[in-house]
Design a protein that fits this description.
mainly alpha; about 85% helix; single chain
Length: about 140
């Protein structure tokens, strides 16, 4: 079988991707998460927090809810249908941190949960902190 014949066979057997439906789900769920965040921001501001404090409280709340829903198994069910709508906001990062920890919890708190908690977050933190240090050094050296 030639490469062209194999490609025709694969294309004939492959199910078409429902891109429009996937885009709509991602938009709606990502938008709903953003609306929830804005609602929480308004709520916290109404309780007397200034803008920075309210923004921090919103981030903490969304991370907590994402971790909780991941632990309950709800986040993965939603993400299966919503795709990038759940993965792009801060909720996706929280899910990426909690999921490996839950997967390896049978290995114990230290070697399972503790070690696997930073499988995803570790590289992000290392590169983020490294980039900020390099940027800070360049700013000090070359002035602002």
């Amino acid at each position: 079988m030639t490469n062209q014949e194999y490609e025709r066979l694969v294309n004939a057997k492959a199910k078409p991707s429902p891109m429009g439906k996937n885009l709509l789900w991602a938009f709606l769920v990502g938008g709903a998460i953003s609306v929830l965040g804005q609602g929480l921001l308004n709520l916290y501001a109404g309780w007397g927090l200034d803008q920075d404090q309210a923004g921090t409280a919103v981030s903490v709340t969304l991370i907590f809810l994402s971790a909780l829903f991941t632990g309950l198994g709800w986040f993965d069910k939603l993400a299966k249908h919503a795709g990038a709508g759940t993965l792009v906001p801060i909720t996706g990062f929280a899910n990426a941190v909690v999921s490996p920890a839950l997967e390896f919890r049978s290995e114990g708190l230290v070697m399972g949960v503790g070690a696997k908690l930073f499988v995803i977050a570790g590289p992000v933190l290392v590169y983020g902190i490294s980039a900020s240090v390099i940027y800070g050094l360049l700013l000090v050296l070359f002035g602002a």
